[in-house]
Each structure stands twice: as structure tokens, then as C-alpha cells.
Amino acid sequence: MSDRHVRLAALFAIVCIIAAPYLLSPFSITLLNYIGIYALVAIGLTLLTGIGGIVSFGQAAFVGVAAYATAWMTALNGGSPWAGLVLGIVLTCGVALILGLITLRLQGHYLSLSTIAWGLAIGFLFGNVAWLGKHNGISSVPPISIGSITLIESWQIYYLIWVIVCGSLILTYNLLDSRVGRAMRCLRGGDTLVESLGVNVFGIKVACFVIAAFLAALSGWLYAHLSRFVSPTPFEPLMGIEYLMMAMVGGAGSPMGGVVGAGIVTLLKNTVQDYLHYFVGRSAGQLEIVAFACLFILFLQYAHLGVVPWLLRLVPRAEPQRPKPAGPLPVREKPESGAPLLKVEQVERRFGGLIAVNKVSFDVKAGEIFGLIGPNGAGKSTMFNLLTGALHANAGNIAFAGTDITKARQFAIARSGVARTFQHVKLRPRMTLLENVMLGSYPRTHAGLFRGLLRLNRYEEASIRYDALRQLERVGLAEKPFELAGNLPLGNQRVLEIARALAADPILLVLDEPAAGLRRQEKQQLAKLLKSLRDDDKLTILLVEHDMDFVMGVVDRIVVMDFGEKLCEGQPREVRENPRVQEAYLGGTA
Amino acid sequence: MNLDIALILAIDGLASGAIYALIAIGTVLIFTVTRVVYVPFGDIAAFTALTLAALEVQKLPGTAGLVIVLACLATILELITLVRIGRPHEIPRALLFYLIVPLLLVGIVWLAKPLYSAHMVFRIIFALLLIVPIAPLLDRIVYRPIANGSVLLLLIVSMALHFALVGIGLLFFGPEGVRTQPMTDSIFVVGQVIVTGQTLLIMIAAILFSGLLYLFFEFSLVGKSLRATAVNRTGARLMGIRPERSGTIAYIVGSLMAGVSGILIAPVNTIFYDSGFLLGLRAFVGAIIGGMVSYPGTAIGSLLVGVLESFASFQDSALKDVIVFSLLIPILIWRSIVSVHSEEHDEE
User: Considering the domain A337-417+508-523+545-590, what is its CATH architecture?
Assistant: First the structure.
């Protein structure tokens, strides 16, 4: 499906939306209104859960905060619904910001459990606060008016709702196709990966969370003025899980999934309600929940990717256009060759009683390829983590380009010009090669959240895309830039990681076992690439490696570690002849 | 608030804390063995109370029907799986465990109707007999197909299952709340404070069952195999332990604990078909204080929740739940800081 087809489909959808009130019964329009309102929350959830990997059971509470805010403003204090909208958004985003700042450092299921906790707590609050009407809620909420038009009929508010839904969808898609959005799409790859790209993980998570809450606030505002009444029930955890269900049924991986899911779940619920009535009569409401919960469980067991990805598979995909030449991205000033770049002084790292790195010191000079080797358990990986900020030293100092980075956070180190690869490849398998490399350019580009939302980032985006293609060419993977990264063989995945690191325009490239799993020829190519990066691009490279032949062939200098201590340092030939190194590798009797 | 009131509140809190502790320990047991955050555990406790109440009025409880339905479903699923993976010789065994044993339990309770009025002990035993098969059967139906999914997927499923159970609870038990006969009317006076026999009974039962569980884990082979599964599923499998079987045992033991807590709380609180959620979640707060791994930590945490709840309801009864659940957030943060977690690769 090419861009033109997408536009045609969108145009068709918009015509359908506009025509609906003329063709459908008022009841169907009311149903569509609710679908739109739920869809807003579900769009937020796709962003938060499907893309950001943060499962929230508490979105209903955010909807409730905004609904109650506007009801309080209008029904109890005679304010305008627009004042209610502002209050609702400010309050909801404020609550989300505070909750986010408190809870988003939590990991995995702890985070989700906390959403149940505050979801419940906020839900209880509505039912127990006297000036919010306790369990009776607040009635006679006025309708919204735009100028002199009062949106009192179902079809009138219908247009407002769907304008907001379409607007939110477009903005969300814009966001996902931007620098910040790519960082969000990276979140499920784990914190270490995201931080290594120079992204402040916590900040990105908070942004996701607040955006999802903002969409929930819009939904709550519309809900209050559509149903003209608020009570605690629709904002309890049951509804929270229903929203989650909508997002997942539709396909949590894309915002469109939220809209489709909201449609499917609402229509299905409506049908089930109609038919269950014939079978059981009085307890239909409860049976409906049972039926729904069972369907949801079945869905999670067998098809948890959702409807939209399944539909998209049926549509033929057109090959996107290769990026065209565009303005260059800013290039970092590289230090003079031979100047000290990385200084490690008496660094020590303990894990309980185990000393993994014991008072190790070495220098890396600008423009050299530096090897860090040692047998298993020598402390290489720990050293690597200390250098990249994944771990922090208990004692000693690490300085990079004259700045102390001993206590610096991972993303700050990445931003200062250190790019890394991983021993166990960390790519985004469902993103294309090009997009994976584009991730790398995060620290040297600038378009923020709002420029991304409003698509004011096109110039920079073009440069990022073109630069990514050039990096792919550099490492020899430019033949199929739109292949999914997950489809590459392991060796090429490693090389792709190097391309991603290069996209950051680093001063120091830190490679964790880059030759592992490569074939002989691939190793030779890699060695050639590394040397060319040193000679032509003035890059400094530090590599941790097991493969002796490979190391000895490319590096200028080596540090050997054993049992957490530095054994020796020097040129490859010296190191090879050092008896202590031979003893460490081959055993005492060798 | 003077000291006497504080003491009364504290004892009250410890009693409810002891009940939460029983549920919480079960939750931890199931989480460590199967990685399922078993939200519907409170529902199991509530269903036990409702079952006991039905037995008191000489009725065959709705639980019987529930067990039959679940047993049939689980059997069908198991048969399909066995045929599909080409192991039809295991069918008789599957029939025995998934169909005959649960139906037998229901049959025993059904035939023993004259005993319902005989003594409370019979009723308690019957209630437990009916409640214990539910969780293992649900495990087969709901969790087994996705046993290797991420913790988060399992958690979402648990939430959905909880809401399904609440709806089912209404169908099988009706909307009326129940309160069973007190187990003892004795009252003890310690200094200035009156302690009811029921409170004492709750605490004794909590201690007794925690102790039994400890013995089970320390000194029985089955208990040890459960611990092994909790530490490393693959490792346990290599040692000839079936994680599925460990899971079933964990569900049985856990259900027993939830059942006991349901029986203990039934005479004190009015229980409705949907009381389980809050019961379970409070226990959950306790379990999280214990980091979802430590049994003593869980017990202490649950007692803390009970006491806090009791004092909170004295201060402001309307907002006690808000207070208890708001408390969860600082606890989670503390847990998240102290626990060492390996990064979970969550790939689609």
C-alpha cells in the first residue's frame, strides 16, 4: 500500500464519517459517539501499552478525573464546558505527571500493579467525596456549545467527537514517525538499549504516560457532556480493563488499533446485550461481563497481536522510496589524534563480596583501536558496563574527553559521544534496517515532542533518513533498507548495530564482542571497516573481544584483564609474548 | 484515641491481617511457582464463604455446578491437546484427574446432604472439598495455554479472569450477602481489652497453616519440587519435575489457604459474590511488601495492612480503601529499589 492508497483510504474514511448521520439511525449515531469516546482512551493505550510496553489498568481513572472536573466546573459552579475542558486537561495531566514521576521507574509487572492501585484509589475517591456527590455522582451537566450552537443532539456532538478522534490519530501517527516517537517505539527493547541511544528513558516514559492521560482527559470531557451525568461506576478498574481490551483486540501496536478495537468491543457488547436478554433475562448485565472476560481471555491466548496487524497483512505493501539526498546533519568535532580521550583510573566495582573489577587503570588515546581482552570471568563485561554507565564504579574515576563520567547516567554518556553495541544484539526486530539506524541519530538531532506532533520536523527527518542510508552503505547493508531487522542473520545484525552506533556520529565507538558469531569472511570485512573508521573518520574504537586472531589483527594496543585485575598493557606483539598472559589463557603449566 | 481504643483497633487489625496473610501466602506461592499474579485469589476466598453459607441452610451450593462446568471444560481441552500432540494413551489419566476426581468430590458433598446440619466441621470440610478443584481447573483452562507468556500477559489474563469470576459468582450464588454462624461464642478479657474467641481462632489458624506450609516446603519432597520450580523452571524440568504438576499442586495448596481464610472471615464480615476483589487486593499489598517471594515478609506485610486498615477506618471509614491502596505505591517503589531485577526482554 503506497502513500497514495493511504491517502485515498483516509479520504474514504472521512467521507464515511461525515455522511454517517445522514445514513444511520440516531441510535447508531449514539453508538458511534461512544465508540469515538472510547477510541480516544484506546489510542492513548496503544501508545502507552502496545508501543511503550507500559500496561496500565488505570486509564479509566484518568477519564474520570477529567469527567468529574468538567462536571464540577459546569454543573456545580456554572462555568462553561470549555473552562471545564481546560480544568480537566490540567488536572488529569497534572495527576498523570505526578503519578508518572512516582511510579514510572518501577519495572514490568510492578508498574502495572501500581496502576491497579492508583486506579482503585482514584475510583474510590469519586464515590466517597461529599462535594462530588458520593455514589450518586453529579447530574445535569450542560451540553457543549460552540459559539451560538449548542451540541444537544446526538449528531451534533458526533461531529465534535470524531473531529477530535481523527485529529488525535493524525497527531499520534505524526509523533510515531518522529525522533521522539522512534525513541518511544524503542522502549520495549529494554532500558539499556534506549539509554545507550542517548535517550532519557524515564523522560520518554513520562511523556508517553502524560500523552495517554491527555487523550483520556479529552475522552472524559466528551463523556461528561454527552451523557450529561457522571457517577463513579464508569471510572472503576472494570472499565480500565475494558479499555485495555479495546486496545489489544484492535492491535496495540498501532494507534488505528485503538479505534478499531473500540468499535469492535462496543458493537460486540451491544449485540451481546441484545441477545443475552432473550436467554437469561434478569442477570444479563453480569453474564455480559462473564462472556466478555472469557472472550478476552480466548483472544489473549490465541491472537494477542490484534485485528489491525492481521488486516494489514492482507493489504499488499509497496516498497517505500529510498531516502533522497538531503542536508547533512551536524558533525561533531573529533579530538586531535593521539590526545588522551578516555582515562580510567583505579576503578573498582564490587558485587557484594565479589570484586569484579579491582583498581584497574588505562588510557585510550584518540584515533586508536584499543582492545580489552581476558579469559571468561575476567571482568571485561563489568568494565564495559562501567565505561558506558550501565553500572557505576564503587571507587576510582573515569574521564571521557576531559569530563568526569564516573557517576554520569548512561544516556548522558551516550550524548557526550560514546556509542556502543551489545554482546547480545539489541535491535528492534519489527522495525526496518533504516529505522533501526535512524534510532542512532537521536543524540545529534533536536526535533522535540511538539515539532514531531505537528510535523515541523520534515527537514531534519529527511537528513536523518539520508544519513541512515549512508551508514547502511558504509557497513554494506544498503541493499534492502526496508527489510525488517529481525529477518537478518546474526552476523548482519551485529553489523547493523555498528551502523546504528555510527549514526550517532560518536567520538568513541565501544564494541562488545563484535566478531562473535561472524564467519571468517565477515570478520575480515569487519576488521577492514574498523580500520577505515579509524583512519578515514578519525574515530576511536574500544573493543571487548574473545576472538584472539581478530583482536590481534586490528587493534593498536591491548589491555588484558584477569580475575578483575589488569594483567598487562601494550602492543599486540608484546602482550602475546607476556608469560603472565599465556599463563592466564593456557593455565600454569603451559 | 486513647490506648484502649488503640489496642482494640490493633487486635482487630491483626485479626483481619491474619486473614489477608493466608490469602497473600497463597498468592506468593502461586506467583513463584507459575509466574501468574493470581488476582482472582480473593474470589476463591469469597466463594468459600458463600459455599459455607449455602451449606448452613441445607442447600447444595452453587460451587458444585461451577466445579462440574469447569471440570467438563478442562477435560475437553485436555483431550483435544492429548489427541493433537499424539498421546492418546494418557487419556485415561487425564479423565481421572480432570473429570472423575472433581465430579467425585461434588458427588461426595451431594450425597452427604444429611450431614450438613450435623456439625460445623462437616460443613467446613465439604466447603473446602468443593472449593479446592476450582483453581487447578482454571489453571488448566486459562493459564496452561499461555504458560510461557510474559508476566504482564499473565497479569492481564488474571484481571480478565477475576471479572469473569465475579460475574459467575453472581450467577451461581445470587446477589445476597451472607454471614455464617460464629464458630465460637467465647470471649476472653485480657486486662482492659475484650478478645473474642473468633479473633483468637483466626490468629491460631493463620499461625497453624503458615507453620504447616513451612513444614511442607522444608521437609516434603513435593514441597521441595515446588521450590525448585519457583527458582528455575527449566532447571526443575531437567531434574524430572514437571512445572505443570508443580503448578497444580501450588494451586491446590493455595486454594486451601484461601478457603480457610474465607471460612474464617465468613462469621465476621458479610461476604458478597464480589467481595473477593478487595479481599484479594489487600492481601496483595501484603504480598508485595514481601516482594512476592518471601513468606515471612508477606505475613508481616499482611498484618501491617490489616492494622493500617483498622486504624484508617477509625479515622475515616469512607476513605480507608483509598488509604490502603495509596499505600501500595510507596511500597512498590521501595520494592522496586531494593529488588535486583534482570532486564526482561519484551519482544513482540
Answer: 3-Layer(aba) Sandwich (3.40)
